[in-house]
Amino acid sequence: MPAKSKAAADSQSLSPPVRDLASARHVAAVIRTCLKEGRRVEIERLGEFRPVCGGGFRFVPENRPSVFLAYVSEDAARVEHLCEILESAGFDAWMDRRKLLPGQNWPRAIERAIANADFFVACLSRHSVNKRSCFQGEMRFALDCARRIPFDQVYFVPARLESCSIPLRIEQQLQRVDLFPDFEASAKRLISFIRSEMRRRRAV
């Protein structure tokens, strides 16, 4: 058997646990390399490895509330501003143009981020509600994820960036928040609500 074909056959014959172990070793090697170079390594939803003075590193667990921001490209500037406000308030805001890596399987990464988020914020505008785009699919997927959330928890938050219509299914079931006319003050109210909701969840 030619060497190339044999290698491919050997790879295919590996059992899932062996392949998983090889992948884990590769990830560990990448983390070690980055830490040796003095860089931080963030593992989404788990925490961050940080180099310390004198060598070595420490792991800082992730305990910030995670907020997925869904939007269309026409609203990117306003959503970027919201993302910065949330980050400065101590939240882990997930925005595709900030989080996705080159070559990453973006549909899978987005679905995973939505499913793992503490909150899904749908940024609604005249652009987003009428546009055929991934935004519509993200909202549908988030509504499916919401079915698994306990009834007394808030997960899906419709946030209007401007005066616009709201999809009927969402309008009939979910209370919205308006981020206008005073964007900064409205964003602070959103932050206050998320903090209150997280305190309530942790008290249960």
Give me a quick take on this structure.
This protein is an alpha/beta fold and 204 residues long. The chain has nine helices and eight strands.
Task: Describe this entry's structure for a reader.
The chain is of the alpha/beta class and 204 residues long. The chain folds into 2 domains: 3-61, no CATH class; 66-203, Toll/interleukin-1 receptor homology (TIR) domain (Rossmann fold), CATH 3.40.50.10140. 51% of the residues lie in helices and 17% in strands. The chain contains 9 helices and 8 strands. The strands form 2 sheets. Strands 5-4-6-7-8 form a 5-stranded parallel beta sheet, sandwiched between helices. Strand 4 (66-70), helix 3 (76-88) and strand 5 (92-94) form a beta-alpha-beta unit. Helix 5 (106-116) runs parallel beside helix 7. The longest helix has 21 residues, at 16-36. It is globular, with a radius of gyration of 21 Å. It starts with a helix and ends with a helix.
CATH evolutionary superfamily of the largest domain: Toll/interleukin-1 receptor homology (TIR) domain
- Pick out the low-confidence regions: 1-14
- Provide the helix percentage: 40-55%
Q: What does the main sheet amount to?
A: 5 strands, parallel
Task: Give me the count of strands.
Answer: 8
The name CATH uses for the topology of the largest domain is Rossmann fold
Number of structurally distinct domains: 2
Number of helices: 9
Report the order of strands and helices: HHEEEEHEHHEHHEHEH
Strand residue percentage: 15-25%
